[in-house]
Design a protein that fits this description.
The structure is a single chain. The protein is of the alpha+beta class and 141 residues long. It has 2 domains: 72 residues, ACT domain (Alpha-Beta Plaits, 2-Layer Sandwich), CATH 3.30.70; 57 residues, Alpha-Beta Plaits, CATH 3.30.70. Helix content is 19%, strand content 30%. It has 3 helices and 8 strands; from the N terminus they run βαββαββββαβ. α1 runs antiparallel to α2. The chain is globular. The structure holds iron/sulfur cluster (2 copies). One iron/sulfur cluster binds next to loops.
Length: 141
């Protein structure tokens, strides 16, 4: 892959109370030439902030942008996302499928009819949480 190739990475940022006012997104765009797509942002009553976003840019710029974020003591979580799907709790009822706008929850194999969750496709709209009768989908914040 050439160093100019653009990639997209989904990140969940956790802001301790004191960091919520910093213009992170502005700097990521201006200083590191990244395209930002914010899916969900929330400040808790304790004034902690969460932000789930996609960053698109070169590998090098994304890495620099991540280092900038970390330098502000903001935690980057690339493993956990804002939404989790618990395969154990999922009863495979299929109720969520027509409500998922991106196909992040899908039935790729019509023979097995198994529900699959693809976190990369999830835009954090939370529709599935509202319609899941078995509490198999959770929001981390
Ligand atoms: S949050 Fe929205 S996009 Fe993500 S899995 Fe649920 S319905 Fe699909
Ligand atoms: S609505 Fe809930 S239990 Fe039903 S398939 Fe979707 S995640 Fe699984």
């Amino acid at each position: 892959m050439s160093s100019d190739t653009k990639v997209t990475r989904k990140l969940m940022l956790y802001f301790p109370e004191c960091e919520t006012e910093k213009p992170i997104v502005y700097h990521l765009v201006k200083d590191y030439d990244l395209v930002i797509n914010i899916f969900r942002a929330r400040v808790t009553p304790e004034e902690e902030g969460y932000l789930v976003l996609d960053v698109t840019g070169t590998e090098e710029n994304i890495e620099k942008g991540e280092n900038f974020i970390r330098s502000l003591d903001i935690k980057i979580d690339t493993a956990r996302k804002g939404l989790t799907w618990d395969s154990e709790s999922c009863a495979q009822c299929g109720s969520c499928i027509p409500h998922c706008p991106t196909g992040a929850l899908s039935i790729p194999d019509r023979k097995t009819m198994e529900i699959v969750f693809n976190t990369d496709e999830c835009i954090e709209c939370l529709s599935c949480i509202k319609v899941c009768p078995f509490g198999a989908v959770h929001s981390l914040f």
